[in-house]
């Protein structure tokens, strides 16, 4: 159970301007650490609001200035993805093979990964990279975050060359609908 | 490179058709200027019977086999390069299958019978070959995009059923492509006269607030099809190796690599035709009481033509092999092949005409057409200068475009 004080602090942070939020975020994300899953399950709207506000920020400079906080931000992000995937029937149907993906920003030191597991029907992710992933995605940090939060359509973003993808084309076309459905869901929640 | 029995049979059938049906009429048709739609569709319908085309039944085997596509480019260009251009420029019609409902309703029946003629609008009057920064714009307005701008040198533009237009998407700030179908939208075209390739229509297009459904944006076409569970190479029926290059080298670049290798084979076809005519003439025509082939300087011309032809053919095949294997060097080699073979075709056609002497200057003689058609080769699908910049960029990983 997420404590009320934390929820209240998060809600108050929405009232502040971008600069104040940027200052407050490291502390806020540090407090959320370890409770990401509970927060996502119990307060999905609040998490969506945090992610929405963050995707309006200059992600690359935030990550460059706060590398540790960036990892905590990713943990929250991926908790959201995991929980969304668990509860979404369409995504469950779309998970029909194992896919591993690394993300690497080309304008700041941000890396992440996602694993689609067919036997568990899960989509999990986190900061840092996997050894020998199926697919490697590189691009600007705000585009990579947008892919997860739903502001960048995975297929359209690729076609419009907003990011690069390296790996077997067949794995990419299996991953795209999953990411698309998740980002559509994330947009609905916002 | 070794052709399979099936590919050899395909080539034999294609040669047979071209010799029987195109060769006897090519001189008159080319002299009369751009073919009309019915004439072009007549050839396209016949070629479909041989397994050449872009409809859902034919495209996977035609586009899906690098060698069939390249053999087609070479063999048709041996007889009539303009027909090859009219046929190949129709490929954007493949996207009708996954387009917006109104476009599918209007065009799918035509596509399924091989009668949906396509065109590709890339070049702009003010932008030339700089495809990365189109001045033509697409503005989002509700569920539609509104296209404004001009395109030039668009093959088939006059009578194409669908036109795939490269434009700057103002909603994303990125370059994208938009499929315009002429049942639901209209635009003005203006025929352009030109030095060679006289049998195919090229036109300037003006898009004046042309509205297309949002689902006709190419990235949406891909997105919608993938969401429906289609694989990339079902959407664009290229070989899997080429769709793999979509991932690694950007979709438009991979498409250009494929088309430029086709252009390279087209140049080889023109060279072979010029060489064959010159060789036959050299052994038949007599001066000073002996065939001109017995003059050393004529043999030198034959040597030069043959070496140009064979190096071009081998380079084209190398580019096709790299495409077939999805090799990262496919972009470099396709540009090298297109640039080199196009330039060489000019020289070979020039040498062939020289062997004919004054006879080669007569319009009723094919050498004159080969010369004009070869001269065009160095300009469309990226000028030789652009190919040099691509090769340079691929070799050094440093761009010298600007």
From TrEMBL, chain A:
<dbReference type="Pfam" id="PF02036">
    <property type="entry name" value="SCP2"/>
</dbReference>
<protein>
    <recommendedName>
        <fullName>SCP2 domain-containing protein</fullName>
    </recommendedName>
</protein>
<dbReference type="InterPro" id="IPR036527">
    <property type="entry name" value="SCP2_sterol-bd_dom_sf"/>
</dbReference>
<feature type="domain" description="SCP2">
    <location>
        <begin position="113"/>
        <end position="179"/>
    </location>
</feature>
<dbReference type="InterPro" id="IPR003033">
    <property type="entry name" value="SCP2_sterol-bd_dom"/>
</dbReference>
UniProtKB/TrEMBL annotation, chain B:
<feature type="domain" description="Acyl-CoA oxidase/dehydrogenase middle">
    <location>
        <begin position="120"/>
        <end position="210"/>
    </location>
</feature>
<dbReference type="InterPro" id="IPR009075">
    <property type="entry name" value="AcylCo_DH/oxidase_C"/>
</dbReference>
<dbReference type="Pfam" id="PF02770">
    <property type="entry name" value="Acyl-CoA_dh_M"/>
</dbReference>
<feature type="domain" description="Acyl-CoA dehydrogenase/oxidase N-terminal">
    <location>
        <begin position="4"/>
        <end position="115"/>
    </location>
</feature>
<protein>
    <submittedName>
        <fullName>Acyl-CoA dehydrogenase</fullName>
    </submittedName>
</protein>
<comment type="similarity">
    <text>Belongs to the acyl-CoA dehydrogenase family.</text>
</comment>
<dbReference type="Pfam" id="PF00441">
    <property type="entry name" value="Acyl-CoA_dh_1"/>
</dbReference>
<keyword id="KW-0285">Flavoprotein</keyword>
<dbReference type="GO" id="GO:0050660">
    <property type="term" value="F:flavin adenine dinucleotide binding"/>
</dbReference>
<keyword id="KW-0274">FAD</keyword>
<dbReference type="InterPro" id="IPR036250">
    <property type="entry name" value="AcylCo_DH-like_C"/>
</dbReference>
<keyword id="KW-0560">Oxidoreductase</keyword>
<dbReference type="GO" id="GO:0003995">
    <property type="term" value="F:acyl-CoA dehydrogenase activity"/>
</dbReference>
<dbReference type="InterPro" id="IPR037069">
    <property type="entry name" value="AcylCoA_DH/ox_N_sf"/>
</dbReference>
<dbReference type="InterPro" id="IPR046373">
    <property type="entry name" value="Acyl-CoA_Oxase/DH_mid-dom_sf"/>
</dbReference>
<dbReference type="InterPro" id="IPR013786">
    <property type="entry name" value="AcylCoA_DH/ox_N"/>
</dbReference>
<dbReference type="InterPro" id="IPR009100">
    <property type="entry name" value="AcylCoA_DH/oxidase_NM_dom_sf"/>
</dbReference>
<dbReference type="InterPro" id="IPR006091">
    <property type="entry name" value="Acyl-CoA_Oxase/DH_mid-dom"/>
</dbReference>
<feature type="domain" description="Acyl-CoA dehydrogenase/oxidase C-terminal">
    <location>
        <begin position="254"/>
        <end position="394"/>
    </location>
</feature>
<dbReference type="Pfam" id="PF02771">
    <property type="entry name" value="Acyl-CoA_dh_N"/>
</dbReference>
């Amino acid at each position: 159970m997420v404590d009320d004080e934390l929820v209240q602090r998060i809600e108050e942070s929405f009232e502040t301007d971008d600069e104040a939020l940027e200052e407050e975020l490291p502390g806020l994300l540090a407090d959320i650490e370890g409770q990401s899953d509970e927060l996502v399950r119990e307060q999905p709207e609040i998490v969506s609001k945090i992610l929405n506000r963050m995707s309006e920020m200059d992600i690359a400079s935030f990550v460059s200035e706060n590398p540790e906080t960036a990892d905590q931000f990713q943990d929250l992000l991926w908790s959201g993805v995991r929980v969304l995937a668990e509860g979404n029937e369409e995504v469950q149907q779309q998970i029909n093979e194992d896919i591993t993906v690394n993300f690497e920003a080309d304008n700041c030191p941000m890396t992440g990964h996602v694993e689609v597991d067919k036997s568990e029907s899960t989509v999990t992710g986190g900061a840092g990279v996997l050894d020998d992933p199926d697919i490697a995605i590189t691009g600007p940090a705000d585009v990579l975050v947008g892919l997860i939060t739903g502001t960048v359509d995975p297929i359209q973003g690729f076609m419009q060359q907003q990011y690069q993808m390296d790996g077997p084309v067949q794995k990419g076309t299996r991953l795209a609908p999953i990411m698309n459905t998740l980002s559509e869901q994330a947009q609905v929640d916002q | 490179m070794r052709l399979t029995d099936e590919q050899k049979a395909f080539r034999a059938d294609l040669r047979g058709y071209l010799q029987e049906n195109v060769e006897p009429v090519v001189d008159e048709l080319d002299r009369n200027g751009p073919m009309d739609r019915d004439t072009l569709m007549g050839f396209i319908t016949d070629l479909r019977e041989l397994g050449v085309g872009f409809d859902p039944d034919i495209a996977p085997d035609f586009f899906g086999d690098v060698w069939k596509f390249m053999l087609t480019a070479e063999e048709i260009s041996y007889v009539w390069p303009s027909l090859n251009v009219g046929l190949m420029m129709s490929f954007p019609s493949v996207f009708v299958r996954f387009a917006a409902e109104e476009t599918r309703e209007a065009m799918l029946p035509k596509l399924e019978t091989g009668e949906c003629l396509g065109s590709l609008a890339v070049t702009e009057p003010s932008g030339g070959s700089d495809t990365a920064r189109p001045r033509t714009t697409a503005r989002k307005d509700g569920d539609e995009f509104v296209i404004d701008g001009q395109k030039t040198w668009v093959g088939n533009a006059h009578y194409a059923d669908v036109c795939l237009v490269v434009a700057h998407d103002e909603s994303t700030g990125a370059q994208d492509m938009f499929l315009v179908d002429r049942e639901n939208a209209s635009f003005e075209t203006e025929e352009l006269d030109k030095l060679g390739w006289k049998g195919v229509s090229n036109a300037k297009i003006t898009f004046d607030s042309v509205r297309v459904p949002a689902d006709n944006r190419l990235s949406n076409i891909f997105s919608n099809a993938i969401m429906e569970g289609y694989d990339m190479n079902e959407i664009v029926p290229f070989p899997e190796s080429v769709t793999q290059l979509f991932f690694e080298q950007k979709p438009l670049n991979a498409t250009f690599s494929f088309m430029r290798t086709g252009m390279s084979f087209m140049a080889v076809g023109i060279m072979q035709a010029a060489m064959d005519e010159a060789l036959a003439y050299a052994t038949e025509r007599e001066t000073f009481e002996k065939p001109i082939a017995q003059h050393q300087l004529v043999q030198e011309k034959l040597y030069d033509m043959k070496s140009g032809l064979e190096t071009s053919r081998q380079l084209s095949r190398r580019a096709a092999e790299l495409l077939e294997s999805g090799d990262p060097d496919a972009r470099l080699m396709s540009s090298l092949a297109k640039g080199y073979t196009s330039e060489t075709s000019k020289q070979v056609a020039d040498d062939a005409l020289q062997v004919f002497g004054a006879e080669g200057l007569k319009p009723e003689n094919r050498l004159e057409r080969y010369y004009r058609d070869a001269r065009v080769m160095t300009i469309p699908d990226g000028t030789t200068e652009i190919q040099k910049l691509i090769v340079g960029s691929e070799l050094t990983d440093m761009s010298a475009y600007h």
